[in-house]
Amino acid sequence: MIRNIVVGAALLLLGMSLVTVEKGEVKIALLKYSGGGDWYANPTALGNLARFCNSELNTNLDPNYATVEVGSAEIYNYPFLHMTGHGNVVFSDLDAENLRNYLMAGGFLHIDDNYGMDPYVRPSLKKVFPELDLVEIPFDHEIYHGAFDFENGLPKIHEHDDQSPRGYGLIWEGRVVVFYSYESDLGDGWEDQEVHNDSPQKRLSALRMGANIIKYAFSN
Length: 220
Hints:
Layout: H1 2-13, E1 29-32, H2 45-56, E2 66-69, E3 80-85, H3 93-104, E4 108-113, H4 118-128, E5 135-136, E6 166-172, E7 175-182, H5 186-190, H6 193-196, H7 200-219
Parallel strand pairs: 1-2, 1-3, 3-4, 4-7
Antiparallel strand pairs: 5-6, 6-7
Helix pairs in contact: 2-7, 3-4
């Protein structure tokens, strides 16, 4: 049943249909977590990404994204979860179990380090999948070439520590179920232009990479 909810929404987004899924826009969701980190950062990002995907990929995403807590059964209503922030992340045992079941059932989580999340994201993900390690996604992976080509992996949107951007993943049964963008800050590039004053080229690059993530999430 869980898989039907998640996969059904994915098929709807791709223009297919299931008897159990009504036609209409597909919502994506922002993940709310505990620990004091600012999970609510980049409030205009997901709406802009949805509009970009609708324009460039002919998807049917609702720009009015939802907000959902990690431990809530409501996460199964959203085939794509986005998580961001600058600081602490805490998953309870219930949170970890719920997120694990969601991902194994066909859901997808994109984590975008808005600077400062890395020391907290890694142990939190280990709690969700103790048997898996975050691995760097190779540049020839389809997530970098689904709709737009990124020959060198993630684009660099904000400098932060001036390190190269890296894309990591948790892979379950051959599918990337968590994609973690580090030292890139895609979400800042998705925000309204006046928020960070990024160049049009950087914003376009960030949105295109976001579209690739969306396409991968709904195609695998």
